[in-house]
């Protein structure tokens, strides 16, 4: 991938550090219409680090996640993953990167209702060309570590909310991604179940060496992470380490 870096971008590091450099994103066509969703955000997520992003509604948390994950292209600035620029990458290579290097967990409703849990988990591997037997074996191996042993053939409608989120975590991690992006992963769960899900999400990510970027409104969820960033009006205005 070619490097087209912003003039002041720090030297890229060809490791599994995720770097966002001076990210600006405006959804409205002109600045007069509304303030930018991202107004110049810079951050680095170290390999294996877990980072929570908190802030009021509309402060730009989800936009930051989408820009860092290569889903949304920034208007200014760049995202560097493994030493390469996402901004200058083609749509096709960004899609390939998302599939091979990143995993995603959303609030709910992300599993395919018709497929048994194990097939839901195997899906990213199947889409990447792994043969079915090997994909399902790798998927099944994640059930016990996530406390899901015996639920492999259940369909999503036959799982509790917390079990379904743990299946979604397995699916995000089955391809051993470099970074897992999670947007309100416990937003639909009660406090106790949320704690269980975070225990599994942080524990298994750490075990597999994946970094974690979590958008959340819940300070208890952020408390599971190494670091919490606070956003306001499209900027990072504070940071706390555990
Ligand atoms: N697709 C879009 N088109 C236009 N404006 C958008 C779009 N997505 C987000 N915005 C605007 O960008 C700003 C930041 O939104 P974003 O969803 O990133 O905030 P957030 O902090 O994640 O909010 P919440 O906590 O409510 O999910 C808001 O003003 C929002 O209205």
From TrEMBL:
Which key words are in the record?
ATP-binding, Nucleotide-binding, Transport
Q: Does the keyword Nucleotide-binding apply?
A: yes
- Any one GO cellular component localisation term in the record: plasma membrane
Whose protein is this, by species?
Flexivirga aerilata
Cited Gene3D superfamilies: P-loop containing nucleotide triphosphate hydrolases
Q: Which residues form the ABC transporter domain?
A: 18-242
- Record SUPFAM superfamilies: P-loop containing nucleoside triphosphate hydrolases
GO MF annotation terms:
ATP binding; ATP hydrolysis activity; transmembrane transporter activity
Instruction: Report the protein name in the record.
Output: ABC transporter ATP-binding protein
């Amino acid at each position: 991938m070619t490097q087209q870096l912003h003039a002041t971008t720090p030297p890229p590091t060809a490791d599994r550090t995720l770097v966002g450099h001076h990210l600006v994103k405006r959804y409205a066509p002109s600045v007069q219409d509304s303030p930018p969703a991202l107004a110049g955000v810079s951050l680095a997520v170290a390999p294996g680090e877990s980072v929570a992003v908190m802030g009021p509604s509309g402060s730009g948390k989800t936009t930051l996640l989408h820009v860092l994950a290569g889903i949304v292209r920034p208007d200014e600035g760049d995202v560097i993953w493994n030493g390469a620029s996402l901004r200058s990458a083609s749509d096709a290579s960004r899609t390939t990167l998302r599939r091979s290097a990143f995993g995603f967990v959303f609030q709910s409703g992300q599993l395919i209702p018709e497929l048994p849990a194990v097939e839901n988990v195997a899906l990213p591997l199947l889409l990447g060309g792994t043969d079915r037997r090997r994909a399902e074996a790798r998927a099944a191996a994640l059930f016990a570590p996530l406390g899901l042993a015996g639920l492999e053939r259940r369909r999503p409608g036959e799982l509790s909310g917390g079990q379904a989120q743990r299946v979604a975590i397995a699916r995000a991690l089955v391809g051993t991604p470099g970074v897992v992006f999670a947007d309100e992963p416990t937003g639909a769960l009660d406090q106790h179940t949320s704690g269980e899900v975070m225990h599994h999400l942080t524990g298994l990510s750490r075990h597999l060496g994946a970094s974690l970027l979590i958008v959340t409104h819940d300070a208890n969820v952020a408390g599971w992470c190494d670091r919490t960033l606070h956003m306001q009006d499209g900027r990072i205005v504070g940071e706390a380490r555990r």
